[in-house]
Amino acid sequence: MTSTTHAIARWRDCMNSLPHLYTLVTVPVVGHLRDTIPDTIYCVTCGRPVHPWRNARLVIDVPFITEIFKSTDGTWFITDRLKNQLETLGARGYVTQEIPFEFSDDYYRWASIRNDRTQRQQPLYYLAITGLCDGPWVSHRRAGQCPTCGQAMAIVDDMETLITALLDDAPPPTRLVYPDTWHQEDLFYLSEPGPPLITERVAQLIVPHRPSPERVRPVHSTKAQHGHALTYADPHTIELYPARWVDRD
């Protein structure tokens, strides 16, 4: 074998040893936050989160059955069951904090419509994803660093482009990750703004009925519909799309 052939073989072995990745595109939005400390966790200049909440209360507005979900501002939450599963797995790239919660009048109206009055009594946890990796940007153009928080900024598209993207039913671009920026995290963000990525072993906890050999097509829960607007009326929706590793040029 030539040195080039050896190098290619080592590169293939390295890439094959990496876990399969998924972008966590959609989870149910089930409520809103109140009594937050501090008032915001988002940069006043670029709008990206800069630190976790120190305290907050989740007001649940709709019934839901998934183990992971969000509030209207984009904060992540998990059930006690999923928290224990992640700890047993030894997953990395996140921290949790038990959070107080309550049920709104809207929750009881939704529950009545669905004939579902089940209330979750086990603890709920705020999920702060701390992993951070880098890769080629696929959905945005870079605009340098934010002068306030130092995070990478994206050029904001004009309104016509944004509306066209929202109405487009095509699958989202495949997110790409440089392996040399990954430090064994199972949950992480990329420098490019967008939803977090998860490894396959975490995906199997979130969508346990997913056929394990599935690698290429979008992964949905039983009631997920690609392109369907994420609203309070979708308490079952979890949507994953495959991401992939890519070597630097």
Descriptive report:
By secondary structure, the chain is an alpha+beta fold. Helix content is 20%, strand content 29%. It contains five helices and 16 strands. Strands 1, 9, 12, 13, 14, 15 and 16 form a seven-stranded mixed sheet that branches. Helix 2 packs antiparallel against helix 5. The longest helix is centred in the N-terminal third of the chain and has 15 residues, at 3-17. The radius of gyration is 19 Å and the shape is globular. Residues 210-234 have low confidence and may be disordered.
Helix fraction, binned, reads 10-25%
| Coarse morphology | globular
Order of helices and strands: HEEEEEHEEHEEEEHEEEHEE
Number of separate structural domains = 1
Mean pLDDT: 79
Oligomer: single chain
Structural class: alpha+beta
* Ends distance: 23 Å
Helix segment tally: 5
In short:
With 249 residues, the protein is an alpha+beta fold. It contains 5 helices and 16 strands.
Topology:
Elements: H1 3-17, E1 21-26, E2 29-37, E3 55-60, E4 68-71, E5 76-79, H2 80-89, E6 94-99, E7 101-103, H3 105-113, E8 124-129, E9 131-133, E10 142-145, E11 152-154, H4 159-167, E12 176-177, E13 187-190, E14 197-199, H5 200-206, E15 219-220, E16 239-245
Parallel strand pairs: 2-4, 3-7, 9-13, 12-16
Antiparallel strand pairs: 1-14, 1-16, 2-3, 4-5, 5-8, 6-8, 10-11, 13-14, 15-16
Helix pairs in contact: 2-5
